[in-house]
Amino acid sequence: MHGYAKPDRHGRLEMKLTLLTTPIALLIVTLGSTFVFILVSQSSRSTRHPDSMSRSFILWLHGLGDSGPANEPIKSLFTSAEFRNTKWAFPSAPNKPVTCNYGATMPSWFDILEIPVTADSPKDESSVLKAVQNVHALIDKEITSGTDPKNVFLCGFSQGGALTLASVLLYPKTLGGGAVFSGWVPINTSMMEQFPPDAKKTPILWSHGMADQTVLFEAGQAGPPFLEKAGVSCEFKAYPGLGHSINNLELQYLESWIKTRLQSSS
């Protein structure tokens, strides 16, 4: 989280992409500078008594070139009483060479072959599947500690959103939900046969800015048909004028979306 987004010369609220110049004058693009527009602080509200809520877990996966700690302010927006028993995790990706950035090393969950990401961009499934294993280990640890799988939620922005999608679809249990922000489908249709039956029951929320020039809106639009073919429920929300970033409206909706799916203790 680096500050507030400002309108560009076209009047759109967009994330400012971080551009780093290499010694040979090549531009390196990061997809992870997630600006959040905190318009007003939300008052606590609850439809269920907080003591009746079981423990829940929200895992947030950042974008390319970003870090987990930089995204931690997101949890401050989740002020409803239902989240008093929520454990948040904001892991950081390891430093790896990234093909789309001319092999430069930066925080990256898996390799990205080209930018902008389109609906037809090539996929490096092997590196995606390695990243999925690491995410599954974090989920397994939390479930082993006593959290109901249906109270586990994965959320991610950009590259983290793509990893969220793959991790949910390949996890052997039904989770509370997966939320993809400005992401894309990082695996091929041939992988569908490997989706466990219980994974297909995990609902997906997909949010995408229509003015995104980094992960094109068409890449986001390709998500619902892919999921429908796999038999997975997906709610797709388009945000006119929004570039490659997350805005306050998206996070407010995410809060309510998760609230309706949290399981009460019996």
UniProtKB/TrEMBL annotation:
InterPro entries: AB_hydrolase_fold, LYPA1-2/EST-like, PLipase/COase/thioEstase. The chain crosses the membrane at residues 20-40. The keyword Transcription regulation does not apply. GO terms for cellular component: cytoplasm. Residues 49-260 form the Phospholipase/carboxylesterase/thioesterase domain. Belongs to the AB hydrolase superfamily. AB hydrolase 2 family. This is Acyl-protein thioesterase 1-like.
